[in-house]
Amino acid sequence: MRYSAIHRDSECENAMSITIGFWDLVLVVVVSLQATILAYFYQPKWKAFMLTLPIPFTVACMAVGRPIDATNVLGLILLLGFTHGVRLLHYKFHLQIIPAIALAVLSYCLLGWIIVGILPEDKIIFWVSSICALIIAVVLLKMLPHRAEQGHRSSLPVWIKLPIIVGVVLFLVAIKKNLHGFMTVFPMVGVIAAYEARNSLWTISRQIPVVMLTMIPMMMVCQLTQNSVGLGFSLVLGWVVFILMLIPITKFMWSAETAAADKSEKAINVE
User: Fold this and answer.
1) Per the confidence metrics, is the pTM higher than 0.70?
2) Closest CA to 106 of 138, 82, 139
3) Phi/psi zone of residue 119: left (φ > 0), alpha (ψ -120 to 50 degrees), beta?
4) pLDDT digits (tens, 9 = 90+) for 100-145
5) What's the CA gap between 122 and 155, in Å, rounded?
6) Residues 6+ apart with CB under 8 A from 156
7) Alpha-carbon gap, residue 235 to 225, rounded angstroms
8) First CA to last CA across the chain, in angstroms?
């Protein structure tokens, strides 16, 4: 369904005001809970796994109320840039983790706003973007090897940590209104994940191709079914495909990590 010029103008006007609706409140709750659970996991692979779950994406889609389109897919590519950007700024350029995250969030927002302004609403662009993003994900998954990284578990009590996370998420919900589909994959959990996994940013960055390989098929299903069954039920169907993709990919990733760890341990014993 194509948006008319009048509809676009009304969207622009709405973007200028900050409104918090029912699904926004649900989004704050689920993101806060998911980010809090992530913060208290110690192993990097479990933090990465929690980041993969598209619970915020599902609720954000309902909050936006727009059909799945190319901006959702391109948002995953920006998410890839966000995670690697934080990693490079923090590790290579030695920027403190909070300024590194802030700069990456700002870059995501700016690029998202620019793309929304120039991207035509065309189904062909959705499918081309999806295929290109899947190719990028497969290539990166093969290129980026497993690295053993230090784990970290938040030392703050839950009653202190949770209000902090809720405050951060409320701020993110307030600033993302005019990102359209980019809002649905906005790194709300990713911001918390980047801070809590600051000792294992390679593992987090390596997980994003997995996010792409599981969520893009989910988006494809939504794109094919949303006009006939509605956005809500199309997301349910998308979740089925997501789980079917997630299980084998996660088994493959964890088996490869175990094999790499065993090989490294044997090499150390030989020395």
Assistant:
1) yes
2) 82
3) beta
4) 999 999 999 899 989 988 988 889 999 999 999 999 999 999 898 8
5) 48
6) 164
7) 9
8) 64
